[in-house]
Amino acid sequence: MRRLNRRKTLSLVKELDAFPKVPESYVETSASGGTVSLIAFTTMALLTIMEFSVYQDTWMKYEYEVDKDFSSKLRINIDITVAMKCQYVGADVLDLAETMVASADGLVYEPAIFDLSPQQREWQRMLQLIQSRLQEEHSLQDVIFKSAFKSASTALPPREDDSSQPPDACRIRGHLYVNKVAGNFHITVGKAIPHPRGHAHLAALVNHDSYNFSHRIDHLSFGELVPGIINPLDGTEKIALDHNQMFQYFITIVPTKLHTYKISADTHQFAVTERERVINHAAGSHGVSGIFMKYDLSSLMVTVTEEHMPFWQFFVRLCGIVGGIFSTTGMLHGIGKFIVEIIYCRFRLGAYKPVNSVPFEDGHTDNHVPLLENNTH
């Protein structure tokens, strides 16, 4: 009884077979079919390789929302070299809330040589080349995001030569924590001192002829320090043509959450515009000589997430490629074969034309070809 039920089940399953097998004795092969099959298999192999490369690749997804975090502090990462001695310059931050952050809170002043060594000059040249490419091709920013924590450090390499030249510049590096409001980070003559109406710099003791605000920005970023990320001002170098020269950078900061398969970091992107002018009170150009970075924060926050094609989607696309090529090539082969057969049949029919018509007395004609012909000699 069980065997009978099993046979019935197997016969029912066989009737539901949607892929019936044709005996090989009924299968007819042709050269055209083999050629089309070869083209189909080659196309499938190429498309499968391309699809696998797409499956291995990742892309960055950008999402935008309102930044609701106003209570946390903003970190400023700084590495700037100014062509003046350290005792003559001072750096600090003053925000819109009239809160002053002195440089002693996190910045270090190091005597340095302003001219770069050959290796450092090559590093700067490569960094400036990358900056120019980033301005032309914005999609390269995704590559930089994905390579964060994997690429080489973007910090200025140490000098490889033992120069006996005395230090003629001051390297200001470190970080500061400021309020998340618009502010002004500046480097000018004299050390900063608190003042009831804001703050001031002791510049009276510095000789005016020693003013030289030629500077090089090796690194400037906001938020968490992420190795491998190149910021817009990294590698910037400005040469002052006058003692009384002001350099201004207007920066718009966009809070950014970065989530890749390597890291998760809360950092900040920023856009910058530059301006420089000579201070000449007689000509109406007022101000203070120095380097001024005025920053403001955007109300939008960007979330950058690295995404990958799921395996099920890759499998479905692969099945679509195989099935679509099989169906398309089979249909095209059938249409081509049909057209060739029609043309061939028309040529064959054109070869059989009536030979001679034999008239009858009643006006009809005989179009039949005689089977036997008598040859008389």
TrEMBL record:
- Domain (Endoplasmic reticulum vesicle transporter N-terminal): give its ranges: 13-98
Q: In this protein, which residues make up the domain named Endoplasmic reticulum vesicle transporter C-terminal?
A: 164-331
Q: Which GO terms describe its cellular component?
A: COPII-coated ER to Golgi transport vesicle; endoplasmic reticulum membrane; endoplasmic reticulum-Golgi intermediate compartment membrane; Golgi membrane; nucleolus; retrograde transporter complex, Golgi to ER
Report how it sits in the membrane: Multi-pass membrane protein
Q: Where in the cell is it found?
A: Endoplasmic reticulum membrane; Endoplasmic reticulum-Golgi intermediate compartment membrane; Golgi apparatus membrane
Q: Which family does it belong to?
A: Belongs to the ERGIC family.
Q: What does this protein do?
A: Plays a role in transport between endoplasmic reticulum and Golgi.
Q: Which Pfam families match?
A: COPIIcoated_ERV (PF07970), ERGIC_N (PF13850)
InterPro entries the UniProt entry points to: Erv, Erv_C, Erv_N
- Full protein name: Endoplasmic reticulum-Golgi intermediate compartment protein
Q: Supply one GO BP term.
A: endoplasmic reticulum to Golgi vesicle-mediated transport
Which gene is annotated as encoding this protein in its UniProt record?
ERGIC2
What keywords appear on the UniProt entry? Answer: Endoplasmic reticulum, ER-Golgi transport, Golgi apparatus, Membrane, Transmembrane, Transmembrane helix, Transport
